[in-house]
Amino acid sequence: MDLRLKTLSGEVLPPLILTLVLWLFIFNLSRGLVLLEPVAPIVVVEEPAGAPPTSPAPYINTITLLSIIAVTGFTFFLIFKRYPRLASYISVGAFWTVSFLTLLIHIGYIGNVSAIIGENLILGIVLVIATALAFLVRKSSGVAALAAACVTAGAGGTIIGYMIPVLTFIVLVASLTVFDLVMVKKGYLSLLSHEQYRERINQLRGLVVEVGDVNIGLGDLLFYTITVTTTFFKLGLLPAITANLAMIIGYYLTLQLLKKWTTVPGLTIPLSLALASALAVYAFIPQVH
What we know:
The structure is a single chain. By secondary structure, the chain is mainly alpha-helical. The chain has one domain. Helices cover 68% and strands 5% of the residues. The chain has twelve helices and four strands. The two termini are 31 Å apart.
């Protein structure tokens, strides 16, 4: 969840490419051809339908997920500090795994493909695509790496966003805006701004994507996607479009901050604007519910 800027160039592209990709995946999910579990993998305590804001489920889910992110992130940083080559392999391995599993779900159900060409062929196709995406994000930078990262984040984020309960979503996104700020300014992500680690950031390709002079975390793209997707399926089309536009605006505002600071949180402003604008539209325009 770390965004960095050296100069101004191709860094304007991430939210635009991601928007195109995530809406293609949302369209695929909205047709009802993809069979998913009713509860997202990030949900520890199932949220009852119509649960009130006082329900403990969304808060327990959020605390659990943020704790996992913090512990995993700090552990990974220690690995990166001591064994950078191992961290590099973990980065691309994690990227490939997410690509393979999530694309398998999406592609397996596009137009009932599995009934036409068979599961084994689909498995082979997804294997090739995931490997190609991992190669691009590992060996290239710029638009090619960004597109590969957006496909992976779009595939994974739309699946999670489709399943996550609405209250857990609201509490999680609101908490992430603060969590990311703390991690970048005081937590383990702040350590990546040290010169000795900045020079090795390209070893984390897969979890970090280089485009223009920006290094943007795959987690940022993932949570951007989750936010728009959950808004679409839980609140409606107009709130989702509003959230998407607000996320883009927030991203560009974040870029402006990078002119003053070396490292800024990639989630705080985009998710704050996206969540607030989506809830406002949902509350004041009843016909889009």
